[in-house]
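[job 4471] stage=fold_predict status=RUNNING
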Amino acid sequence: MFENEEIIFYQMNGLMLGTFAQASLEADMNRGGLVRPGAFALAHNVESKAAVDAAIARLVGAGGTSLRKPDVPPPGGYRGYVADPDDHAWEIAWNPAWAIDAEGRVTFGL
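[job 4471] inference complete, writing structure tokens
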């Protein structure tokens, strides 16, 4: 659905798959040194900037570790990163170009 030098997004029946270049993913997560194959972040898209803040606060309150405080990435929207207790990185994001339906399916749009 979209690509540039850093990322490619694929629309997958209400889910989005994004593949990042390694250096770009490390910079976006604010988590350098991921020099192993298969480094990734799971992403959860929400309906608003306020929902990003609320989800990250809940995750940190439940034992997660803040990796990157929410901010505005270069393409727009709003996102932050949290590591769960098993150290898996999660991006919590709001993208105004992505619609989320009542069942939680995400649709890419520009």
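[job 4471] summary: The CA atoms of residues 65 and 83 lie 5 Å apart.
[job 4471] exit 0
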